[in-house]
Amino acid sequence: EAVRRVLLLGEGNFSFAASLCGAAGTHVVATCYESEEEVCGRGRAAESIRRLREAGAEVVFSVDCTKLKDYFLPEEREFDCIYFNFPHCGRKAGVVKNRELLAHFFRSSAEVLTEEGEVHVALCNGQGGTPADQPRREWHNSWQIVAVAAGAGFILSNVHPFKAETIHGYKCTGYRSQDKSFCIEGALNHIFTRSTPLPYFKPMICEIELESRKVSFQVPQILVDKINRGFLELNSNHPVWTVKEKLTAELKQALPLQNIDCCLSLLHQGHLNGVCHSNIFWIILSPEASPSTEETSNGVANAVLFSHVDFCKDTDKNGWVNVQEGCHISKQYYLRPSLLPYAQAIIQRGTFLPGTLHVLSGPVFRKCLISPYSMPVFHEVVFVCAVNRGTENSCIQMLVNSIKTSIHSLHQTLSGSKLNINLQEATGFETTELNDFAAFESQLSEIQYFIYMEVDTSGCCEKGSCVGIIRTELVGSEFVVVSASLNLDLLTMLICGISDWRMLWTSDTRFLCQFPRGKLRLFKSFSLYPPSYVHDVSFWVPDGEQFDEVAFHTIARQVSGETVVSI
Length: 567
Fold this sequence. Notes:
Layout: E1 4-9, H1 15-20, E2 26-31, H2 36-40, H3 45-54, E3 58-60, E4 79-85, H4 95-110, E5 113-123, H5 145-150, E6 154-161, E7 188-194, E8 205-210, E9 213-218, H6 239-252, E10 257-259, E11 267-269, E12 282-286, E13 289-291, H7 293-296, E14 304-306, E15 311-313, E16 320-324, E17 332-335, H8 340-349, E18 357-365, E19 377-388, H9 392-411, E20 417-425, H10 436-444, E21 449-457, E22 460-461, E23 465-475, E24 479-487, H11 488-496, H12 509-512, H13 549-560
Parallel strand pairs: 1-2, 1-4, 2-3, 4-5, 9-16, 10-18
Antiparallel strand pairs: 5-7, 6-7, 8-9, 8-14, 11-17, 12-16, 12-17, 13-15, 18-19, 19-24, 20-21, 21-22, 21-23, 23-24
Helix pairs in contact: 6-9, 6-11
């Protein structure tokens, strides 16, 4: 088993280091800023140093915490944990000087820490400037530790009280080991981990079969990391998959089920009645060029991805049609904003089996305004069932009851909140009262009911969110088709307490490891109190030009790499 390497900085009398050195599987490297002569003359330092050396720990003197890599050979720089308790520049150094010390320390730590390592910084109450400090100082009068750490690529992943009394033999000394100690009552230990760097995604070509033809198109830049993530595939352990599986398992007990996901194309063609064109990701078919032979010789899966954009003009040996965003040609395509047209196609073809629940699911794409719960891409599931005319109300009730049962059974393993799910008639709702999901759905076709979900946390009930809609459609004189559409991503967020849709799409293992396959848990954020910044930006729109707010927000998403959280 690998030995855990721990680095301690700024030790005063080495009593903290001595308390750690007995831990099994841990190699301690204890350091201080002063020379050995200065330290050994104080308190119990000499005794602690002797104990450390006897236990096999390394003790290093005169170490500057802002230049750590200078003290260790390259093969010795991989530390799993770095501790820095109560850093201070000494004497009457103000908050600015101490911020600078921390900034240099974090940058130096990044050079000697393993990828999954932790940095522990203990500060006196109020110094950190986070909401965990009680009372909390004004931001300008604090050490701004989260913002300072962010500059070196660290996020605050945990914060808890620094309990000196639980550390055997620990005795706090003053700054630079002065005999006069300082107050550590209410002190906090801040635990930092590396943040994932802001990703840069190359332009991507997506290749699919469309109406028995092979086509390729350039993926809109804000969707490059979201196309074909496979959240709903059989081998997935994503929480969105867990929610979908629970829903279908519950409904399977009430009606026979038929999955028809495999034949759904990413692209639609044709007019969408009532839908605002600003909400659509338009992809325009261009017959002028096609990818070169090298790019397409691997054959076609149902959406094969290439992360390069080389086009060979006047070549169509492989039968590929190139689709580019914004070209001027006759036929227009768009990324599917809904699975409803597929459900309607089944109805129109008459290929449905009466009394059987047909299930369609997959990602859908809609341009929208920026907010924590508004998603340009999410996973939709549609349940479609044809029943005899006059029995549609009992079918609706069965669907709603099954949805309620499955969501409650998923949620009952999570503590701390209550869920309320209710059906509300669609009549009388103004579009401005609806969330993005419901407002868009109401543009597609007439809705009979909204499925609302409320989360009650500690007696404080948040305003309900529309997570699904129910429609009915008369087919011939015998049948009524009932369809229920659910936003799986929004459902997952509400059940698991995820407050920002972007977290569902992260590749960070610190998110995915919280959700073992088939299980849901309350999400525990691994980035606490991230620093946020407000900027004022002015634009002038020429006279007579209409301002498209959704298009503006979409540009903001793209140029900021999804870091803008509100406009």
